[in-house]
Amino acid sequence: MKPVRLALAGVGISLIASFSDAAEGGRISLDSVGYLPARPKKATLVGAAGPFSVVRLRDRTVVFASTAAGPITDRDTGDQFLIADFSALSEPGEYALSADGVSGQSRFDIRADVYVEPFQLVTRAMYLWRCGMAVEGEHQGVRFGHGACHRDDALLDHVGGRPGRRPSVGGWHDAGDYNKYVVNAGAAAGVMFRAWEDFGDRIQRAPLDLPEAGGKLPEFLAELKWEIDWLLTMQADDGAVWHKVSTLEFGPFVMPERENLPRYFAPWSSAATADFVALTAMAARCFAPFDGRYAGECLQAARTSYAFLEQRPRNHPPDLRAFNTGGYDSPDADDRLWAAAELWESTGENEFLTAFESRLSADFPTPNNRDRANGPITVDADWDWSNLRNLGLLTYLNSKRSGRDPALVDGVRSGLLAAAEGIVSTAAEHPYGRPLGDRYYWGCNGTVARQTLVLQAAYRLTSEQRYRDAALDAIHHLFGRNGYGRCFVTGLGANPPLHPHDRRSGADGLAPPWPGYLVGGPHPHADSWQDDQDDYRTNEVAINWNAALIYALAGFLDD
Ligand code: 9MR
Ligand code: 9MR
Ligand code: ZN
């Protein structure tokens, strides 16, 4: 679908219609889930004249009226937009915004707990992704579920030629497919552990209604344990970590318990091994207060694989020639850095700190150069599974432990603030407040959510609200303030995706898709998203994207 240009008589400017079908009378794009009472509230108007108003639904009273600012021009496309700012409206309630020149109105809520239910929904979606057990859930009156699947995982043929199986049951399916990939487990669970460490108190007060509710672990950690238990099965006897458990070709669109293709361990990789170290080290310290024995097991597993890697300093990509499924193959420097950071944070042992700091200096020599001491160390504003360096940097920066090199700490701090500042201005300049600006690639919606890790870290250092407000921009964008005027999460908000590339949703015979899943998003262009099951490039769902959204929402559970 190409944007349609409208020439509105009397407005005097050429206005651009949306990427969506709602183009005819212009469009209002806003966070269709809602806004926090005290924080900024903006909508993007396309094809509007200027005046807009907000009606309180309870009594149909106009509670706010103003004129949208603009037009502002999208630097890349030349398209023009107006920005309706209704930040001053702070009374909790249910509302609808309408604008002159645009037919229809757009609903939203204002509430301090407006992101609690979305948080529960997208976190429960991780549970619904569980492999190896039957799962079920209800959403908007529809029951979703599948039977116990993949109880035979997995075959050893491709890891050393030994015939037979070794148990690797459990974990989460990766995405719309049912395979299980260690590197993406790192990206997903790593971000969720960070959510736990940053916002655990508040997370703990949001019930998830998981089978483990009421047990000795907080539910959120119980969900993570489902993944970590599986991850532990990916460690070979020598400490190498197999790259994935997968079919040889992607399976058909059937329910998981009916996918009966053989599934194999794939050969080890150093990136997967390092991600395993980082995750099991994080698990060790997050589980320690609740289950010391399990924490001990995780730490021992981390040490074993770390020692294995120390003997093999070079990048070792996985040999995936037998497989035509997801690769998740990228060099291991970021993974090794992350592994050292987490082992240090969990143990306090100097060996790991030294390893982390020398890697940091070697990759980014600035702080060792006396002339440029305290120069910024790059912190990425735009990152995904192939570059998990930020997870290590954030752990290092947040640490309460002593012994860090102050020049490196300063370098990371200034790099972080520079990255966060860049994100803030990118969001401010973007017509739809998109903190990733005009970068569109596979899974970019996940990155938009993931940017909030950097923003929240900057907020923690400075207490400056603009970092949190840019994190809210990310949420607003994903929940409807985008070129489609649609929420990108299944079962949530306005006009959400109905046809994600998700085998369960395609195969269960139910009309609505499985709820709580963030779709990958448009690429290569802003208008390339299609709500089409066949379009796995823009409309798949994946654990690393949902995990990032879990983090984004966890930051705003009580405002
Ligand atoms: O369903 C697969 C999806 O999970 C992957 O992300 C995607 C890219 O690796 O591939 C999908 O599988 C497609 C395959 O690559 C080509 N034939 C059609 C498959 C979709 O049904
Ligand atoms: O998220 C992955 C994206 O960064 C890659 O560009 C893409 C192609 O390699 O693969 C994506 O991951 C898919 C994985 O390979 C298989 N399961 C579904 C994942 C999401 O589409
Ligand atoms: Zn399964």
Number of helical regions: 14
The poorly predicted ranges are: 1-18, 367-372
* Overall spatial form: globular
Amount of beta strand: 5-15%
Which class of secondary structure composition applies to the elements?
A: alpha+beta
Write the layout of secondary structure elements.
Blueprint: E1 5-7, E2 14-16, E3 27-29, E4 34-35, E5 42-46, E6 51-56, E7 61-67, E8 69-73, E9 80-85, E10 93-99, E11 106-110, H1 116-128, E12 135-139, E13 142-146, E14 180-181, H2 182-204, H3 219-232, E15 244-246, E16 264-265, H4 270-287, H5 292-310, H6 333-347, H7 350-363, H8 389-398, H9 406-429, H10 444-462, H11 465-478, H12 503-507, H13 536-539, H14 543-554
Parallel strand pairs: 4-11
Antiparallel strand pairs: 1-2, 3-5, 5-9, 6-7, 6-10, 8-9, 10-11, 12-13, 14-15, 15-16
Task: Tell me about this structure.
The chain has 559 residues and is an alpha+beta fold. 36% of the residues lie in helices and 12% in strands. It has 14 helices and 16 strands. A hairpin with a 6-residue loop joins β8 (69-73) and β9 (80-85). The two termini are 39 Å apart. Bound molecules: ligand 9MR (2 copies) and zinc ion. One ligand 9MR binds next to loops.
